[in-house]
Amino acid sequence: MIIKLLSSQIPQFWESIKLCVKEADEIDDKDLAPYLNELLQCLESDKAQCWVRMDDKRTLIALFVTRINTDRLSGTKTLVIQCAYSWQMTNVGIWQEDAELVRKFAKQEGISKIEFSSRNKAVQRVGLQSGFVEKTRVYEMRL
After folding, report:
1. Global pTM?
2. Among 24, 101, 128, 136, which residue's Cβ finds the most Cβ atoms within 10 Å?
């Protein structure tokens, strides 16, 4: 089962959150400290949300971070899944259940769409199987 952590629970899960973000968000080492500081501030002030899935023994299985973005022109809200990480292989049905819970949260918050981006093929596949559609692809050239 997946649960949304309270801001007061963030310190208890901070080491796991840092691991998840480092692996999933692919942040350069030189940028990691300020990135994590900003994330910690957002999680503790409820500007970002952390979701965890645990087994019956309360062992952490998966974790993801979301943020609510509001378009300045239209006022529409988007829930952005910033990163997702799993310590165990999980069947698509479990991720679909998680997606449904997040969908309910988004509706309660007046959010009109949910987005994520990932280079990970397995994450992309789960997204497609959970009802997401590909919107765009982003390419970069580092200089």
Report:
1. 0.86
2. 24
